[in-house]
Amino acid sequence: MSITLNKAAVTFAKDLIKNGKIKNDEGHWGQHNPGSTEENAFLKKHEIDEYAKWHLGEDKSQSEDNKGRYKFPYGDFKTVHRDGLIAAKERAAQQGYHDIEKAADELLSSLEKKAA
């Protein structure tokens, strides 16, 4: 599996953070991560490109219109979640995706500065 950094998602997340669209939650990402129902509802109203922007990783071995192509979610389709960035950073580190880990860390730092 060849997962690469989704640069459009990083830019999108930076803009969301800059505009205060953040949740500085203390819980576990599993409590906030959109499930299949929420993902499918989002895709009924939005193009796959919009869905992709909510994921820091992209598996280019999957077709572009397949939601399985997009990895490392960080938000709930409305806001960037602190715990989503932490989860993405940790999973990327464990799986050896250092560019995604670094991007998640930088976004986390920006979010924490904005929330302070």
Describe the structure.
- The protein has 116 residues and is α+β, with helices and mostly antiparallel strands.
- It has one domain.
- 54% of the residues lie in helices and 14% in strands.
- It is built from six helices and five strands; from the N terminus they run βαβαααβββαα.
- It has helices at residues 7-18, 29-32, 36-45, 48-52, 82-95, 98-115; strands at 3-5, 22-23, 55-59, 70-73, 80-81.
- Strands 1-3-4 form a three-stranded antiparallel sheet. Strands 2-5 form a two-stranded parallel ribbon.
- Helix 1 (7-18) packs parallel to helix 6 (98-115) and helix 5 packs antiparallel against helix 6.
- The longest helix is centred in the last third of the chain and has 18 residues, at 98-115.
- The radius of gyration is 13 Å and the shape is globular.
- The termini are far apart.
- The relative contact order is 0.23.
- The mean pLDDT is 94.
Q: Helix/strand-derived class?
A: alpha+beta
Quaternary form: single chain
Q: Which outline best applies?
A: globular
The counted number of beta strands is 5
On the 0-100 scale, what is the average pLDDT?
94
Order of H and E elements: EHEHHHEEEHH
Q: If strands are numbered along the chain, what order do they take across the biggest sheet?
A: 1-3-4
Q: Give the termini separation.
A: 38 Å
Low-confidence stretches: none
Q: Report the C-alpha radius of gyration, rounded.
A: 13 Å
**Main sheet overview:** 3 strands, antiparallel
Number of helices: 6
Please indicate the percent range of residues in DSSP E strands (runs of 2 or more).
5-15%
Helix content: 40-55%
Tally of separate domains: 1
